[in-house]
């Protein structure tokens, strides 16, 4: 059942490999994306980093300069191909297929883990966060950016839903709506210490959290 669910998610997002960046900007708005990018530009040095759910790499390229090395991973072959094209001249970034709920990495393999717009669309975000803790070295950081309707007005939620349906179609199963407190609680129960927790955006919103392995 789990493998089938993962295959369905891969098929869902793979359809949009050629339009992924444009679709995302239309749905959430350029203003919110620019605010996220400003936050990413202000991050501390992240060291050897792995990203789960890299998609076509639109957020990957915004943190690459903050990393010693960056392994960008996703489950979709089509999205990974787009990411490989994007980073073909960037020696710092490697692109690889991985399942975020069952990654192939040994314990304490990375200094940082980056999750961009992932935990709200996967079946078991808690399992993924536990895996992130496992593969992080001592004092390693986890960075989470994830869109949320939390804090949005009803009218803006309706408009967002219409834009999503027009662009992506029917939402995939196992979508979640998180508040900052929801994610902070999940991270804390696993053993992370919260360093930053913000709700970004005006009309559309995203959570931005940075935590450290204790």
Structure description:
By secondary structure, this protein is α/β, with parallel strands linked by helices. It has one domain: Vaccinia Virus protein VP39 (Rossmann fold, 3-Layer(aba) Sandwich). The chain is built from eight helices and seven strands, in the order αααβαβαββαβααββ. Helix 2 runs antiparallel to helix 7. The longest helix has 15 residues. The model has no long low-confidence stretch (mean pLDDT 91).
Mean pLDDT, to the nearest integer, reads 91
Rg, please? 16 Å
Low-confidence stretches: none
Element-level helix/strand string: HHHEHEHEEHEHHEE
Morphology call: globular
Helix content: 25-40%
The CATH homology group name: Vaccinia Virus protein VP39
Counted by DSSP, the helix tally is: 8
- CATH fold-level topology: Rossmann fold
Structural class per helix/strand content? Answer: alpha/beta
**Spatial strand order of the main sheet:** 3-2-1-4-5-7-6
Query: How large is the share of residues in beta strands?
Result: 25-35%
Specify the biggest β-sheet.
7 strands, mixed
CATH architecture: 3-Layer(aba) Sandwich
Top CATH class: Alpha Beta
Oligomeric category: single chain
Distance between the termini: 34 Å
State the total count of DSSP E strands.
7
Number of domains: 1
């Amino acid at each position: 059942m789990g493998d089938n669910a993962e295959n369905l998610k891969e098929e869902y997002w793979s359809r949009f490999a050629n339009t992924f960046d444009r679709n995302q900007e239309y749905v959430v708005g350029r203003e919110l994306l620019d605010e996220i990018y400003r936050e990413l530009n202000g991050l501390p040095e992240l060291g050897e980093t792995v990203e789960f759910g890299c998609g076509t790499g639109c957020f990957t390229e915004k943190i690459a300069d903050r990393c010693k090395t960056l392994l960008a991973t996703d489950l979709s072959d089509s999205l990974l191909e787009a990411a490989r094209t994007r980073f073909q001249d960037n020696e710092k970034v490697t692109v690889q297929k991985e399942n975020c709920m069952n990654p192939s990495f040994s314990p304490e393999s990375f200094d940082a883990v980056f999750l961009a717009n992932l935990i709200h669309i996967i079946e078991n975000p808690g399992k993924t966060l536990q895996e992130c803790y496992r593969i992080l070295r001592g004092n390693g950081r986890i960075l989470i950016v994830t869109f949320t309707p939390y804090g949005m007005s009803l009218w803006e939620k309706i408009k967002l839903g219409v834009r999503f349906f027009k662009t992506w179609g029917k939402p995939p199963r196992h979508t979640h709506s998180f508040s900052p407190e929801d994610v902070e609680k999940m991270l804390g129960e696993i053993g992370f210490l919260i360093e930053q927790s913000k709700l970004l955006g005006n009309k559309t919103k995203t959570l931005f959290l940075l935590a450290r392995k204790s």
